[in-house]
Amino acid sequence: MMTSPISIQTTPSLLMPGDMYRALPRVSNSDLTRLKEEHLGYWSTPSARFIPEKTKVFGRAFHQHLLEPETVGTVLSQFLPDMIDSSNQVDPNKLAPSQAKQLQALMQTIRQDAFCRRYLRLSERERIVLSTEPTTGIACKARLDMVYTSPKRRNALIIDLKTTSARTQAQFLESCYTYDYDRQAAFYVDNLRHADNGEWDTTRQFRFVFIGVMKQRPYRLFAVDATSIPGFLDYGRKKYRFWLRKWQEEQAQPELMVPAWSMSA
């Protein structure tokens, strides 16, 4: 069975390196994705498992540059060692010119947008939230790109950044359903609602906004307010609770070997 929630206070990820977060014996949204893939088959639904490694690295680099610029040298040295100079800094001369130009364009697009610029300044970035899902008692974890809580804690806004190949708002919205972003949004919102340290217990309103930035010219931005779409979070909540119960059932069967990823991020 799942171990009881460990007594670690909700903390900014700057105080908890990625490997420590992944080692927490809690279930993440990524775990549910892997569980779904194993049950339905890797080829039955779009899967990050088959995204080219260069694409994955670029997405990680984008998030690191934007959300955790102070860790860029350290993190990129793990992914792209040839990009790092002797002082452990990113060497722009070792970036492929097309990659460097693309990354700079995406960063500029985000930072020139008034909404993004405001919440990049006001939000906690890469915030870790530990919670206990009330219907199953399972200890969960989430790492949020950006979360803003109003001064009196009455409102909370979660922002999740996505690079996308979509070229229209409609295509980006469609991708939110294709890639289970409804499940992610519900999982993250409920992690705040049920945070183990009670930080958002008095919060009245939770909003979740996806920001998509085109990976190709003209590098447009798309925004989807997940909480404003009728049924979006409700359907996502049904999804994640279904897979949590499936995960719980597997833990209760001692004859089955616990998947190695069950303790990963």
Automatic annotation (TrEMBL):
<feature type="domain" description="Putative exodeoxyribonuclease 8 PDDEXK-like">
    <location>
        <begin position="52"/>
        <end position="240"/>
    </location>
</feature>
<protein>
    <recommendedName>
        <fullName>Putative exodeoxyribonuclease 8 PDDEXK-like domain-containing protein</fullName>
    </recommendedName>
</protein>
<dbReference type="InterPro" id="IPR024432">
    <property type="entry name" value="Put_RecE_PDDEXK-like_dom"/>
</dbReference>
<dbReference type="Pfam" id="PF12684">
    <property type="entry name" value="DUF3799"/>
</dbReference>
<dbReference type="InterPro" id="IPR011604">
    <property type="entry name" value="PDDEXK-like_dom_sf"/>
</dbReference>
